[in-house]
Write a structure and sequence with these properties.
By secondary structure, the chain is of the alpha/beta class. It is built from 18 helices and 21 strands. The chain has two domains: 209 residues, no CATH class; 401 residues, Vanadium-containing Chloroperoxidase, domain 1, CATH 1.20.144. The relative contact order is 0.11.
C-alpha cells in the first residue's frame, strides 16, 4: 500500500470518528453544580418596631403631639435627626392663645428669615444642607417652560391624575375604568395671580358609588393611603421649604399664589405631594405590573417636579418616598384588605384587557409597551433607569458608613407580590436585599431599611445570588408566572435552578459562580454572560441561547431529557464552554439569527469546548438537512440542503 492510499484511509477514518464518535456510549457525566449549598435569607431587623405593625399610629389629628416613641411616621424618618435638631413645639408658644387642632399657638416664627434663624432648629452637617439647597437653586434656575408647565400640573392637579401618565398606552383605558376627572389640564394665563385647585375626583369613582368596571381598583388605591398623612412628620421636624432658605430659589411664577403665608404650619420635610404620588403609583403598579418600572419612574419624576416647582428640596423628596413605601406596605399587608387586593387586581386586568382588545396578560404586556417614545415618554427602560438612579440619593454627601449590611423591612415584600409572583415571600425579600441602595446617605439609613429599597431594580429580579435560588414557574397560573425577564447584573457564589413550566430570560452581564441547573420549562440566555462563571447543567426542560454568543466559565452538560436551542449566525457565535461539554443525548434545535440565511455547504459552529464528548439524539434546523460534525473540541453542523 502506497503512502497516498494510507493517508487517504487515515483521513477517512478520522472523519468517520468525528461524524459518529465511538466514545458516545461511554461518557462520564459531571455532577450537577453544587452552588453555595444553602439559600439566602433576609429576616427583618431584630428589635426594631415594624411599621407594618404600627402604621395606625400615624394619625393626622395627632400631628402636634407626635413623637419618635408614639408615631410610626415620625420614627421612620428619624434619620433626619442626624442632619437637623428641630425646635421643641412648645418653644415660643403663646400660652394665652387658643390651641388649634390641639396644637399650641406659636407667638413668633423665623421661618421667613434669610438666613434662617437657629431658633427653629439646629443644623448638623452644614455641607449636606448646602448640597441639598444648591441642587434646588441650580434646578429651578435652569427650568425651561416645559419644566414650569409640568411642575405646575403636578402641583395643582390630583396626584393620581398625574400618576396615570406612567401607564403609557394603558392610561386612557385606566382613566375610563376608574371614571377619573380633572379640571387642571394646562396652565391658565392668569395663574400668576389666581390659585387654581383641581375640582376633579382625583382617583376616580369607587365601587360603593356604583363603578362596576374598576371601582375595586379605586378602592385599593384609596386603601393604600390609609393612615398616610405627612402632617405629623412635618410638624415634628419643622424644616422650611427651599424658598424660605434662600432667595436664589426660583418658584414657578404660576405657583406663587399657592405659597402658604403661614410658614410655621408649612413644613417642607417630608414632601406630601411626593408621598401621595408614590402611594398611588405603588398601588397602580401592584394592579398593573406590566408597567411596574414605568410607574416607579413616574413617582420619581413627581419628586423631581416638586424641586422644579421650587417647593421642595431633595431631603423632602427622599422623606416622602420613604414614608410612602412604608405606608403602602402597611396597608397591603392588612388582613382587612386581603380580599380587596385580589378583587381589584382581577378587575383591573380584566377591564384593561377588554378595553385594549388584549387576549390575556401577555398580550396586555405587549400592548403596554407598544407605543414609541414620541407617544409614551416612559417607553425607554434605559432612559428610565438613568433618570431614577441618581434621584434616589440625589448625590448628597454621605454621612454614614459605606458597605453597611442591608436590612429589609418586615412586610416590604408585598410590594413585589404581583411583579414577581412566582417567587416565595422570602425570595422577594432577598431580591429587595440584593438590589438595595448603598449605605451612608443621609436620612436613608433608617433602622428598618425603607430608605435603601430600590423597587426599580427589584422589578428586574435578583442582583446577586448570595445563596442558591430555586425558581418554580407555573405557566398555568398566567401573568409573570408564565414568562418573565431578569435584567440585572447578577453576582454571588450561589446557583440558579429553574423548575416548573414557565420561561425565564436572563439578560444581564452576570458573574455568579454557582452554576445553573435546568429541570423544567425554559431558561433563556439573552446575553453572552447570562449564566455567569459556573457550570450549565440541562437535566430537563429547555435552554435557549438567544444571544449571538454564550460564554460559560464552567462546563456544559445535556441529559437525555434536555433540549438545547441555539441561535446561529454562520461562521461565528455559538456556545463556548471553558471546562468542556458532555452530551448524554437530548435535542439540539438550531435557529437562524435575524438576517442569516443558511446555505448548502455552510458549516456552522455550535459548541466549542476544552473537551467534547457524547452526541445529541436529534439535531434540527427547520427547512434544512444537516450533518453533525463532532470533534474532540466541539460540535459544528454542515448544511447539506
Amino acid at each position: 500500500m502506497n503512502r497516498c492510499v494510507l493517508l487517504s484511509l487515515t483521513a477517512s477514518l478520522l472523519l468517520a470518528t468525528a461524524l459518529t464518535p465511538a466514545f458516545a456510549d461511554s461518557i462520564v457525566l459531571p455532577a450537577p453544580p453544587a452552588g453555595a449549598g444553602h439559600a439566602d435569607s433576609a429576616p427583618p431587623p431584630a428589635g426594631v418596631p415594624a411599621y407594618v405593625d404600627l402604621g395606625a399610629t400615624n394619625q393626622r389629628g395627632d400631628a402636634c403631639h407626635a413623637t419618635l416613641e408614639t408615631n410610626a411616621g415620625v420614627r421612620l424618618l428619624s434619620g433626619f435627626l442626624d442632619l437637623w435638631t428641630p425646635r421643641s413645639p412648645f418653644v415660643d408658644a403663646d400660652q394665652d392663645a387658643p390651641a388649634k387642632d390641639g396644637c399650641p399657638a406659636v407667638a413668633k416664627s423665623d421661618w421667613d428669615g434669610l438666613p434662617r434663624s437657629a431658633t427653629d432648629g439646629t443644623m448638623k452637617h452644614p455641607e449636606v444642607h448646602a448640597a441639598n439647597l444648591d441642587y434646588v437653586i441650580k434646578t429651578t434656575t435652569a427650568n425651561t417652560p416645559e419644566d414650569d408647565l409640568e411642575a405646575y400640573l403636578d402641583d395643582r392637579r390630583g396626584k393620581s391624575v398625574s400618576m396615570t401618565d406612567g401607564l403609557g398606552p394603558l392610561a386612557d383605558a385606566w382613566r375610563k375604568g376608574v371614571q377619573q376627572t380633572t379640571t387642571i389640564t394646562g396652565m391658565p394665563a392668569d395663574a400668576t395671580t389666581v390659585k387654581y385647585d383641581d375640582k376633579g375626583n382625583n382617583r376616580g369613582v369607587g365601587s360603593a358609588k356604583g363603578n362596576t368596571d374598576m371601582g375595586k381598583a379605586v378602592d385599593l388605591v384609596d386603601a393604600g393611603s390609609a393612615d398616610g398623612s405627612t402632617e405629623p412628620a412635618k410638624r415634628y421636624f419643622k424644616y422650611a421649604r427651599p424658598y424660605r432658605w434662600s432667595d436664589k430659589v426660583r418658584v414657578v411664577p404660576q405657583l406663587v399664589p399657592a405659597k402658604s403665608d403661614k410658614p410655621a404650619g408649612d413644613g417642607g420635610f417630608p414632601s406630601g405631594h411626593t408621598a401621595e404620588a408614590w402611594r398611588d403609583a405603588l398601588v397602580m403598579a401592584y394592579l398593573v405590573p406590566q408597567r411596574y418600572q414605568e410607574m416607579i419612574t413616574r413617582a420619581v419624576r413627581m419628586g423631581e417636579n416638586r424641586i422644579h416647582a421650587g417647593m421642595h428640596q431633595p431631603f423632602d423628596v427622599i422623606g416622602g418616598r420613604m414614608q410612602a413605601l412604608a405606608v403602602v406596605s402597611y396597608n397591603l399587608n392588612r388582613s382587612d384588605y386581603a380580599t380587596l387586593k385580589q378583587e381589584a387586581y382581577a378587575q383591573t386586568q380584566s377591564f384593561l384587557q377588554k378595553q385594549t382588545g388584549s387576549t390575556g396578560f401577555a398580550d396586555l404586556l405587549a400592548r403596554a409597551h407598544s407605543a414609541p417614545a414620541s407617544a409614551d415618554r416612559f417607553a425607554d427602560r434605559e432612559e428610565n433607569a438613568a433618570f431614577v438612579q441618581p434621584r434616589f440619593t440625589y448625590g448628597l454627601p454621605k454621612i454614614g458608613a459605606s458597605g453597611a449590611p442591608v436590612v429589609v423591612p418586615k412586610g416590604a415584600e408585598v410590594l413585589l407580590e404581583t411583579r414577581l409572583p412566582y417567587l416565595t415571600a422570602e425570595q422577594r425579600r432577598v431580591v429587595l436585599k440584593s438590589t438595595a441602595l448603598p449605605s451612608g446617605f443621609p436620612i436613608m439609613s433608617d433602622a428598618e431599611g425603607w430608605g435603601r429599597l430600590n423597587l426599580f431594580a427589584a422589578a428586574d429580579g435578583y442582583a446577586s445570588f448570595d445563596g442558591d435560588v430555586a425558581v418554580v414557574m407555573d405557566a398555568a397560573k398566567g401573568g409573570f408566572n408564565a414568562a418573565d425577564s431578569w435584567k440585572n447584573d447578577i453576582s454571588g457564589a450561589g446557583k440558579l435552578t429553574k423548575d416548573g413550566s414557565g420561561s425565564l430570560i436572563l439578560s444581564g452581564n452576570n458573574s455568579f459562580a454557582g452554576g445553573v441547573v435546568v429541570n423544567g420549562g425554559l431558561l433563556v440566555a439573552a446575553s453572552p454572560t447570562a449564566f455567569g462563571k459556573g457550570d450549565l447543567y440541562i437535566a430537563g426542560g429547555g435552554l435557549a441561547v438567544a444571544s449571538r454568543d454564550l460564554w460559560l466559565g464552567g462546563s456544559l452538560t445535556v441529559r437525555k431529557a434536555g433540549r438545547l436551542e441555539v441561535t446561529v449566525s454562520g461562521k461565528d457565535g455559538g456556545i463556548t464552554a471553558a471546562n468542556g461539554a458532555a452530551i448524554e443525548g437530548g435535542t439540539l434545535e438550531l435557529v437562524p439569527a435575524a438576517g442569516y440565511k443558511p446555505t448548502k455547504g455552510d458549516e456552522i459552529p455550535v459548541i466549542r469546548a476544552a473537551n467534547f464528548v457524547g452526541t445529541f439524539d436529534k439535531i434540527t434546523l427547520d427547512g434544512h438537512t444537516l450533518t453533525p460534525v463532532y470533534r474532540p473540541d466541539g460540535l459544528s453542523v454542515r448544511i447539506e440542503g
